[in-house]
Design goal:
The protein has five helices and no strands. The chain has a single domain (6-64), classed as Orthogonal Bundle (434 Repressor (Amino-terminal Domain)), CATH 1.10.260.40. By secondary structure, the protein is mainly α.
Protein backbone atom coordinates (compact mmCIF):
# COMPACT_ATOMS: atom_id res chain seq x y z
CA UNK A 1 0.00 0.00 0.00
CA UNK A 2 1.28 3.44 -0.91
CA UNK A 3 1.59 5.91 1.95
CA UNK A 4 0.67 9.54 1.33
CA UNK A 5 2.22 12.61 2.91
CA UNK A 6 -0.85 14.50 4.14
CA UNK A 7 1.03 17.78 4.50
CA UNK A 8 2.13 17.72 0.88
CA UNK A 9 -1.40 16.79 -0.16
CA UNK A 10 -2.73 19.82 1.74
CA UNK A 11 -0.25 22.15 0.05
CA UNK A 12 -1.21 20.78 -3.39
CA UNK A 13 -4.95 20.92 -2.65
CA UNK A 14 -4.72 24.51 -1.43
CA UNK A 15 -2.90 25.48 -4.59
CA UNK A 16 -5.09 23.46 -6.98
CA UNK A 17 -8.39 24.60 -5.47
CA UNK A 18 -7.15 28.14 -4.71
CA UNK A 19 -7.84 27.93 -0.96
CA UNK A 20 -5.84 30.36 1.12
CA UNK A 21 -4.48 29.59 4.56
CA UNK A 22 -6.47 32.41 6.19
CA UNK A 23 -9.75 31.25 4.67
CA UNK A 24 -9.12 27.60 5.55
CA UNK A 25 -8.19 28.49 9.13
CA UNK A 26 -11.30 30.65 9.53
CA UNK A 27 -13.57 27.94 8.10
CA UNK A 28 -12.09 25.31 10.42
CA UNK A 29 -12.00 27.68 13.40
CA UNK A 30 -8.27 27.14 13.95
CA UNK A 31 -5.26 29.45 13.80
CA UNK A 32 -3.16 29.99 10.69
CA UNK A 33 -0.33 28.48 12.67
CA UNK A 34 -2.28 25.22 12.96
CA UNK A 35 -2.69 25.10 9.17
CA UNK A 36 1.08 25.56 8.83
CA UNK A 37 1.64 22.73 11.31
CA UNK A 38 -0.63 20.42 9.32
CA UNK A 39 1.18 21.36 6.11
CA UNK A 40 4.42 20.10 7.66
CA UNK A 41 3.02 16.86 9.12
CA UNK A 42 3.11 13.60 7.16
CA UNK A 43 0.52 11.75 9.24
CA UNK A 44 -2.82 13.07 10.48
CA UNK A 45 -5.82 11.76 12.32
CA UNK A 46 -8.61 10.74 9.96
CA UNK A 47 -11.03 13.31 11.35
CA UNK A 48 -8.54 16.11 10.58
CA UNK A 49 -8.42 15.04 6.95
CA UNK A 50 -12.21 14.74 6.83
CA UNK A 51 -12.67 18.27 8.21
CA UNK A 52 -10.18 19.71 5.72
CA UNK A 53 -11.73 17.87 2.77
CA UNK A 54 -15.20 19.07 3.79
CA UNK A 55 -13.93 22.62 4.10
CA UNK A 56 -12.31 22.59 0.67
CA UNK A 57 -15.31 20.75 -0.81
CA UNK A 58 -13.46 17.70 -2.10
CA UNK A 59 -13.41 13.97 -1.46
CA UNK A 60 -10.67 12.06 0.29
CA UNK A 61 -9.62 10.59 -3.08
CA UNK A 62 -9.36 14.04 -4.63
CA UNK A 63 -7.30 15.18 -1.66
CA UNK A 64 -4.71 12.41 -1.79
CA UNK A 65 -4.51 12.44 -5.60
CA UNK A 66 -4.21 16.21 -5.93
CA UNK A 67 -1.36 17.10 -8.27
Amino acid sequence: MELHDCGKCLKRAQSHYNVGTEALAADLNVSRHQIYRWRNMENWKVHTMQKICNSIGITYEQFINCK
